[in-house]
Amino acid sequence: MEFRHLGRSGLVISEIAYGNWLTHGSQIEEDAAVACVHAALDEGITTFDTADVYAGTRAEEVLGRALKGQRREGLEIFTKVYWPTGPGKNDRGLSRKHIMESVEGSLRRLQTDYIDLYQAHRFDYETPLEETLRAFDDLVRQGKVLYVGVSEWRAEEIKRALKIADEMGLDRIVSNQPQYSMLWRVIEEEVVPLCEREGIGQIVWSPLAQGVLTGKYLPGQPPPAGSRATDQAGGANFIKGLLTDEILTRVQNLRPIAQELGLTMAQLAIAWVLQNPNVSAAIIGATRPEQVRDNVKAAGVKLEADVLKRIDEVLGPVIVRDPAKTVSPPRRP
């Protein structure tokens, strides 16, 4: 495993992180989830990402049990707050009330005394940003949170948060968690340049484009049985926008590149996002331990400029850079 600093912070994380968005507590049984976490630990992954909303808080519980007994100082545990976790009007958003109550729930479910990185899962347009940032700062001062970050914030929202934090003397954002892959490159135009200047690292989700970049979905054929595209309770709605014959055909044309490099399609896709120097980690998920063991082989892979150019030429017009001009794939909660 290779390691990187999270932005310009002092926190060092594994460049491949393990995430449990669509798996723990919903898609797979707990024994399989625990086996995947233990496989990640065996392969040198120290960074684990979750959120209170995943599987209705059950994902945090499963991760907490899976990591129980591990040396806490050797782990980086990330979670998030924003989406509804209860029926009340204050069981959502980034108000001080919801943040302060949510962090206690996350700490309890994760069975830990502190969270390494606490992230605002989306931007809250109904709560003053000053209120949110002050609450995050208070959690840092209390020692319940070590670092704060955001997820899927636009460049102008990150910029506003940095300005307020500097003016009020609050803890600054050190990370952003966006969707990023060979197919979905929206952050490159505005978010990445801003974050590079401000010392904010990207912890990217869906580097495999919901599994499309593994090459297992073939043009003109139904999705494989048991794949995310057939899981109506989980990932089917998130992947259907990517399952066009044009996208799937171009993805298949990446296969010779991967073979020449001695990589699987998945390893090529994960290695690709890690070539971006602003990326601190790529999040992988898994339903089986062997998927973890396969994907971690992307760590430390160097892709030369000519390879990156060939990838761009193969994918061509299916690359999404501006969602305002292109039909975008569905986004996760």
TrEMBL record:
<comment type="similarity">
    <text>Belongs to the shaker potassium channel beta subunit family.</text>
</comment>
<dbReference type="GO" id="GO:0016491">
    <property type="term" value="F:oxidoreductase activity"/>
</dbReference>
<protein>
    <submittedName>
        <fullName>Aldo/keto reductase</fullName>
    </submittedName>
</protein>
<feature type="domain" description="NADP-dependent oxidoreductase">
    <location>
        <begin position="15"/>
        <end position="314"/>
    </location>
</feature>
<dbReference type="GO" id="GO:0005829">
    <property type="term" value="C:cytosol"/>
</dbReference>
<dbReference type="Pfam" id="PF00248">
    <property type="entry name" value="Aldo_ket_red"/>
</dbReference>
<dbReference type="InterPro" id="IPR005399">
    <property type="entry name" value="K_chnl_volt-dep_bsu_KCNAB-rel"/>
</dbReference>
<dbReference type="InterPro" id="IPR023210">
    <property type="entry name" value="NADP_OxRdtase_dom"/>
</dbReference>
<dbReference type="InterPro" id="IPR036812">
    <property type="entry name" value="NAD(P)_OxRdtase_dom_sf"/>
</dbReference>
<keyword id="KW-0521">NADP</keyword>
<keyword id="KW-0560">Oxidoreductase</keyword>
